[in-house]
Amino acid sequence: MRHAPLQKVFKAIQKQTGYNFSYPYELLEKAGKVDVKIYNAPLQDALQLCLQKTELTYSIVDKTIVIKEKEAEKTISNPVALSAIPLKIIFGKVTDENGKPLQGGRY
Prior knowledge:
Phage tail protein beta-alpha-beta fold
């Protein structure tokens, strides 16, 4: 498909695989249109090709493909955000309701 909305591409995948899609409509609108050329590819490969130039990712739950934003990946790839997180080491003792230490409860 050339310059096709993701919704149209997902409908074609759904027809061929029997998998359903779940996504907020606004996400697909924001992602725009895609150019994909896929023949005899595994489902995961087809989905990666469809989403490779977008800010979207997917997960598969049973027979449903859930489309979502790549939020976690953006945060991890930003070294400035990671360096701004203060690190603290916490020591303590895990006790029961009577104040007695639990076995293996020293950290």
